[in-house]
Amino acid sequence: MIILKSYNKTIFGEIIYLFGPVKSTQHEARKILSVRKPPFLVIADEQTNGYGRRGSKWLSPPGGLYLTWVTKNVEQLGVTLVIALAIAKTVDRFTDGKVIIKWPNDVFILDKKCAGVIAELEGENLLIGVGINTGESPDPEEFAALNLSAPERMYFFRVFLEMLAPLWLEFVQNGLKSILDEYNEYALSKGSFITTHAGDEVVHGEIIEVTERGSLLIKTETGTRELTAGKIINST
Fold first, then answer.
1. Residue 96 burial (CB < 10 Å; 0-12/13-18/19+)?
2. How much is the pLDDT for 52?
3. Any idea which fold 2-184 has?
4. H or E segment to which residue 184 belongs
């Protein structure tokens, strides 16, 4: 473990914990949280048991950027959408491919996933986990990657924090509505037809909008549905 100084002490804390291979940054963050107050950042070069929403496995080979930001919980809805926007804006700086956010927080380059976000509560604290394929793709048929060198990867990380800091302050003070226009610049557009997993249900419909609460309004054969959680598995 290496300890570094943070970019923005007010938002991200004074210390960044930098690891080589770990089980997961969420796991390491919980251990640190038992002896240190937030905020702080945990970064790893590799995860042996990385995971995403609903326990899905996140392939985390060496060379990726895997991090957990531990901060006090906020009352605003839509935390992972803000993080996804910061990722999308950063990835956009490092690729010529079209960057897309698939609601709520999966970031794609063209039709291949590049990054994901998970947020978990631990008491009064929020553990925000991020996985970004900054190195080689774990599966080129399914995942996009940026193929960055180690120095480029650390520069990417700094740019990500620089993108996230103002978005986070705006979000905490004024809610998701304050950054929704920017989010929609990357999100699948109104009128796109999607298939999504919502719990145990598969839902087909046409996107109407992402709401100020972070939910997704879609038009289905039976009427309008508001999805508060889910995963888009197909889109046209």
1. exposed
2. 62
3. BirA Bifunctional Protein; domain 2 (3.30.930)
4. helix 180-186
SS3 call for 122: strand
- Partners of residue 210 on adjacent β-strands: 216
Asked if 79 contacts 119 with a C-beta cutoff of 8 angstroms, the reply is yes
Nearest to residue 143, comparing CAs of 35, 57, 59, 81?
Answer: 59
**pLDDT-derived band at 3, boundaries 50, 70, 90:** low
Stretch (H or E) spanning 161 = helix 150-174
| Residue 58: band (very low, low, confident or very high) from pLDDT cuts 50, 70, 90 | low
pLDDT band at residue 197, thresholds of 50, 70 and 90?
Answer: confident
Domain parsing of the chain, residue ranges: 2-184, 189-235
Residue 233 is predicted with a pLDDT of 86
End-to-end CA distance of the chain: 44
φ, ψ of residue 135 to 5 degrees: the values are -95, -135
CATH architecture of the domain formed by 189-235:
Roll (2.30)
